[in-house]
Amino acid sequence: MELRKIQESEKQHVLIDVRELADYEAGHVEGSIHVPLRELETNIDGVVPNKDEYVIVIGEERGFAPETYEHLKNKGYTNVEF
Questions:
Q1: CA–CA separation, 5 vs 63, rounded Å?
Q2: Which pTM value belongs to this model?
Q3: Angle between the 37-47 and 65-74 helix axes, to the nearest 10 degrees?
Q4: pLDDT (tens digit, 9 = 90+) per residue, 16-29?
Q5: Alpha carbon distances (Å) from 33 to 14, 18, 25
Q6: Which of 35, 56, 59, 70 has CA 20 to 30 A from 24's CA?
Q7: Alpha-carbon distance 13 to 26, whole Å?
Q8: What are the pLDDT digits (tens) for 52-80?
């Protein structure tokens, strides 16, 4: 589902931007949480305690997404999208 449609539908979700701080500060999706990948991997439970929460990860298409997706799935998160 397209992000804009998700936001307009008001479906409960968490947006996590795993890009570097400079990239995040240069422009980011409103409502997103900046959590660099290295911090997300060690503190995902603190960022998103509910493992059934709809989590949308924003990052570089070829960089973080596959690695982060696998990490979240291995931690028990069931509803993850990029």
A1: 25
A2: 0.80
A3: 30
A4: 998 889 999 999 98
A5: 8, 9, 11
A6: 70
A7: 23
A8: 999 988 887 655 566 777 888 888 998 98
